[in-house]
Amino acid sequence: MLQHNRISFNHIIMSRHLSSFLYHQQTTNYKICIKNAQFINVLNNILIIKQNKEMDFFHSQLFNSSISLTPNEDDVLIKNSVFKQIKSKKDGAAIYFHSQNSKLTIISCGFTLCHSSEAGGALFFNGASLNISNTCFLGCISQTYGQALSVETTDESINSYEYMSISQCSPKRSPGSKQCIFLSHGKQCLANLNSSSNHVVEFGSCFCTAYTTSLSLHFTNFVGNSGKNGFWFYKTKLEDSFSYCNIIMNSIEGEKSSLLTLEQAGILLYEFIFLENSCRTYFCGGVVRLDKCKFDIEDKTNFHKLCENFDYGNSIFGSAIQISITAMPYHATWDCWAFGFPSPTPSRSLQPIEAASDNAVSGFSLFLLLIIIGGISGSLVFYVYSSYLIGNKKNNLENLQIG
Q1: Count of domains observed in the chain
Q2: Which of 85, 110, 222, 280 has the smallest C-beta neighbourhood within 10 Å, fewest atoms?
Q3: What domain range includes position 9?
Q4: CA distance 299 to 318
Q5: Whole-structure pTM over 0.85, yes or no?
Q6: Which residues does 117 contact at the CB level (< 8 Å), separation at least 6?
Q7: Domain identity same for 14 and 96
Q8: How far is CA 343 from CA 38, 57, 99, 165, 308, in A?
Q9: Which residue(s) pair with 97 in the sheet?
């Protein structure tokens, strides 16, 4: 539907495709809206938005993607949609967005078992502004970084992430390389997130940031994540805002590893709660200031290392004391999926990520097999029927000759 320079796609259902829904770019600048869509078992990027000044859009250019937009596109909205078992050899299995003048908004969507051979398991974003709310990421994986999403914005942009669930990105039995969430540049605001059971081989099992203009993190749970590092912050500032978060049962392995690593950075944590975390060192590098934080440990040996300055503030330590999670209740997930799909939970069993390609290919193979069988059956029927007609014709001729 085209209305007021807006292209709207509603109730799209695509399953078992080797390539995706196609849109031919035009010169007019449109706003794009996708609602109530289901994309399941697709072997290519569902949505590609990129700037390409050299491409001639008057020709019917075939893209291995869904949509390509001009650099001046204003807004793209994706709402109430499901992306399930999507596999791509490029960045961003479900969504690849590369247009620095464009803004992307994702509301009430589900991404499960999305696999990218490069960055951004579910979403790769390099644009003007990104806003995500009431959205779930389950079992997404990237071969490089950004298991759930990889984001780079302009320094002036304001980006928000709220009421999100990030679970099993990447799954424990097939972990990705590094960084469950990667955020770079711009103003990044995170609130009311649940990050659970994310497992990476290297660093950033919770999330990683770099070169952010400002960074805020509030009312968020990080539970049961594992890797050589939990948080990696590059060039954050003491003026950035971190408050009311629960860091619970995370497992950090390796002698030189730490739960939170700062590189050329400073951080102030206000009322963070740390419970049952397994790590040799909690803080490494940079300037660290704590205010009313709670830790369920008594031994502060190797609590921090290589820090330029460390201030415990009025934080509370002690394994014997009862630390109640007063910051916010822990919820495994947010109820945010469309079409009645189940919300992901940390205990949910995941099939291997390769199943997306296997199922899609098997579906296509089954389709070809049915065509072949149908062709053979039709040929046999035609042969039998032809033989029957020829036999009848011979009998009729013989009867005529006898008569």
Answers
A1: 2
A2: 280
A3: 2-353
A4: 8
A5: no
A6: 88, 89, 90, 143
A7: yes
A8: 15, 40, 31, 9, 43
A9: 49, 125
